[in-house]
Amino acid sequence: MLSLFCLETLIRPFNIFSTPQITPKNLATWNRTQDALERCPFNSSYPMKFLIYGFDIVLTPDNQFLMMKDQMLSLYDYNVIVVNWTNFNQPPYLLAALNAVLVGRQVANLIKYLEANKGVDPQNVHLIGHSLGAHLAGTAGKNTPNLGRITGLDPAAPLFGPLTIFHRLTYTDAIFVDVIHSNNLTYGYGTYEPHGDIDFYPNGGAKQPQCQSVENSVSCNHNAAPQFFLQSINTTKCLFRSVQCTHYKDFLDGQCPPNSSTTDLMGLPAQQIPGLAPKSKFYLRTMEDSPYCLQRWR
């Protein structure tokens, strides 16, 4: 299998950004040389975010993950690394899934390098991956001891079901794993079953209000998870309040009243709840129009 890939080029796809100012001088592509990393100014004490998009995506200026990067750097003291794996995420899907494993291992290698050479604490590292990128993040977590957090944005379902031979994202991949499910229909792109410590199911996790009149509703629903995460970054404008509940219908019927141990905020401000069992389901409703946060529990 390894002969199918150019491992030298697999070590390259990292665009590194840091607070407070982003200019061309602040952008470095890590290309197997220490000088490229040395030229990239970042503060090892800042939290580090890895942004990982999914299958068949090209990193264009309007990419949601670049918007996430801009939002994060404008609001917080973060280091942000965009995993630019466009050369490896293209069809056929099976090949992209295999590449995701290899790129995930390279993400782990970079984290270990930053720990050894820059003093970065893996517990201060947060991977955010959409679709196939969520499982890529899971592979990185499996290969990085004491990784702080992984957020899976509608993790890809094809080839990653309960009986998969692939290593899919799971709650043991980091100290805290949270997942947003937005397209878990039978023929959707995302998984239905819980993966994380906390699994968020906006609007039940299948159909999203903003996609009702969209022609390609499956793709729209699948891409809703990164939209929600993007809007969650600015907590002064949007809070996605969620409640733990066994079923979405019970949530809608008001059978799961919110309290301090059964509520959480979906997206960037999500927090691990002490004593909560893994794979706990949290539900919420969202709006049809942007901003999508409802700002109330139900």
Automatic annotation (TrEMBL):
SUPFAM superfamilies, per database record: alpha/beta-Hydrolases
Q: Which CDD domains match?
A: Pancreat_lipase_like
| Cellular component terms per the entry's GO annotation | extracellular space
- Report the locations given in the UniProt record: Secreted
Which InterPro entries does this entry report, sorted A to Z? AB_hydrolase_fold, Lipase, Lipase_N, TAG_lipase
GO MF annotations, alphabetized: lipase activity
Q: What does the entry give for GO biological process?
A: lipid catabolic process
Q: What is the lineage of its organism?
A: Eukaryota, Metazoa, Ecdysozoa, Arthropoda, Chelicerata
Has UniProt tagged this entry with the keyword Secreted? yes
Which residue range or ranges hold the Lipase domain? 24-292
Put simply, this protein is called Inactive pancreatic lipase-related protein 1
Keywords recorded for this protein, A-Z: Secreted
Q: Does the keyword Secreted apply?
A: yes
Identify its protein family. Answer: Belongs to the AB hydrolase superfamily. Lipase family.
The organism encoding this protein is Caerostris extrusa
